[in-house]
Every structure is written in structure tokens, then in C-alpha cells.
Amino acid sequence: MTRSPLQLLDETLSRRDAAFQARDLEATMALYRDDAIEIDPSGALHRDKEQIGKQIGFVFGLGLTSRLTELARTVDLGHNTAVLVLDSLFTAPPSDFRQHFLTAQTLVLDGGEWKILLSSNTMLPD
Questions:
Q1: Could you read off the pLDDT of 48-83 as tens digits, one per residue?
Q2: Is 63 left (phi over 0), alpha (psi -120 to 50) or beta?
Q3: CATH of the domain at 37
Q4: Is the CB of residue 58 less than 8 Å from the CB of residue 70?
Q5: Residue 48 DSSP code
Q6: Is the model's pTM score more than 0.90?
Q7: Closest by alpha carbon to 89, among 120, 122, 67?
Q8: How far is CA 100 from CA 35, 44, 46, 89, 106, in A?
Q9: Domain range holding 107?
Q10: What per-residue confidence (pLDDT) applies to 41?
Q11: For residue 118, what are the β-bridge partners?
């Protein structure tokens, strides 16, 4: 049975969340395009998959727990793009470390797979 682009997107997002929760760097990075760009919550720019992988690997090494809540989704199948807005929260129990930010992700459908092209994070005041 052929899955629709929207079903494929849902599956990709489920894999993204599972890989992130498991701190599985290889599975997480498989969801990014080679030419992806990320702006982390500090404002630092990471210009390709290799740099993004180093940053995400660093975050995974901190042992943070995360909560990603989808706030909005726009899909344009005419242009094979999707934009998501997430409420993202990282914490580090038992300390009181807390990092709360909005994440905007742009994904593109290429060769039957959704891949992250852009991820931009903006800190929120607590």
C-alpha cells in the first residue's frame, strides 16, 4: 500500500521524536538534508549536516530530557514543503536547569522522504 505524503510526514515526525528521546544521533541525523541549516537557542548558526550533528551530539551528551509539542503545521504539497512550529522544553533533573524555546522546522519531500532543511530556535522567557 502506498502511503500519502501526509502519512510519510507523520511517520518522519514520529521517528524524529523517538530518535531525539533515545538520544540516537545517527537516527536523528538521518532526518536532515546534507545542506541543512540550524540556528540553536543561543543564536549560533550551524551550516551543514556535519555541524548540526556535532551540536546535537553535544546536547545529547548533556543528558537533558526534552518535551516537543507541535503548535502549528502548514503543508504545501505543491512545493513539497512543510513548516512546523514546536514548543520545546529541555530540562536536566534533578537540577533546576530549564531551557524553553520555540522551534520552527522546514521539511522538504525529496525522493519520497521528508528531510529537515531548516531548524531555527528562539529562546522564550520563563
A1: 999 999 999 998 998 888 899 999 999 999 999 999
A2: left
A3: 3.10.450.50
A4: no
A5: S
A6: yes
A7: 67
A8: 26, 16, 20, 5, 20
A9: 5-123
A10: 87
A11: 37, 106
